[in-house]
Design brief:
The protein is mainly alpha-helical and 283 residues long. The protein has 2 domains: 6-102; 133-281. Helices cover 60% and strands 7% of the residues. Strands 1-2-3 form a 3-stranded antiparallel beta sheet. A two-stranded antiparallel ribbon has the order 4-5. The protein is globular and about 60 Å long.
């Protein structure tokens, strides 16, 4: 996500503070919101105008696009509100009206918000490919050679999508997810290094070649990804299985650009979860 215009920041700050609305936030609540959004060293409210103060904090981090993205997602997250989906949806609609000028919007991937790019006609997202994917993957994966390989697969998925090869794009995204989860689990978890993974029944089993289903379930069992990311990652896994022509002939999925977007979006949610987990741990 590129830096956004100062006027957009001002408008977003007013929406978030909601000074004249039913969800008006106090200065203390704004501090807590920034912390919950995953900002490192969130600023302390200084007692000045809340809208101006929040706009200033956002402007200071405008070049740190992940912080702005995290904040927008948290503002549109049902977890943030006692009213749940209804409040989150109201904020998402207001935020998206302002983001339209930036060519962005916040979309809902099964209850989890992610920032996506608007399509050419402004009616929907071209895809929900994670922004700054290269930088984010290299922060999470220690082995640079493995990171290079995975990012090459992501680049190939991008090329396939732009060329209209949607089935191959879906398969490439699934391959990227599998490689990333396997690498992170074996780099960071002793049990996984010893070929111990969680099966669909939640039991720890030995497997020298764990499949993608096992990797997703293991990451969730370890608390690395939340239930929504797990659920929608299994959709990506099911789509990836169309690598088998027999399955494609039987189901005739007829993938299109939106189908690829439905795979990028859960990857965004998975990255958010992984970053929050390991940022919190200082790993």
């Amino acid at each position: 996500m590129s830096p956004i215009d100062p006027k957009t920041i001002e408008r977003l700050a007013r929406i978030i503070v909601d000074p004249d609305g039913p969800y008006v936030r106090t200065g203390r609540e704004l501090q807590i919101l920034l912390a919950r959004a995953g900002w490192q060293d969130p600023p302390e409210y200084d007692g000045t105008s809340k809208v101006s103060w929040l706009a200033e904090q956002m402007e200071e981090r405008n070049n740190q696009s992940r912080d702005i993205e995290r904040l927008l997602c948290r503002v549109c997250d049902p977890l943030e509100y006692d009213e749940g989906d209804a409040a989150a949806r109201a904020f998402r609609n207001m935020v998206n009206e302002v983001l339209k000028a930036e060519g962005l919007l916040v979309i809902d991937t099964g209850g989890r918000p992610v920032v996506a790019e608007l399509g050419a006609n402004g009616s929907g997202s071209t895809n929900a490919e994670p922004h700054d994917l290269d930088e984010r993957v290299r922060r999470l994966i220690d082995n640079s050679g493995t990171a290079d390989l995975l990012l090459k697969r992501a680049a190939e998925a991008r090329i396939c999508q732009r060329s209209g090869a949607y089935t191959m794009a879906v398969i490439a995204i699934g391959s990227f997810v599998e490689g990333m989860l396997l690498t992170m689990l074996t780099e960071r978890d002793e049990e996984c290094r010893n070929n111990r993974f969680v099966d669909p029944q939640g039991k720890l089993v030995t497997s020298r070649q764990p499949n993608l289903a096992m990797l997703i379930d293991t990451a969730h069992a370890h608390g690395w990804i939340q239930l929504d990311a797990k659920t929608f990652m299994h959709t990506v896994r099911n789509f990836r299985n169309y690598i088998h022509p027999g399955k494609e002939l039987a189901d005739n999925p007829d993938f299109d650009n939106d189908s690829v977007g439905l795979c990028w979006a859960p990857l965004q949610a998975m990255l958010n979860d992984l970053e929050q987990r390991f940022q919190t741990e200082g790993v």
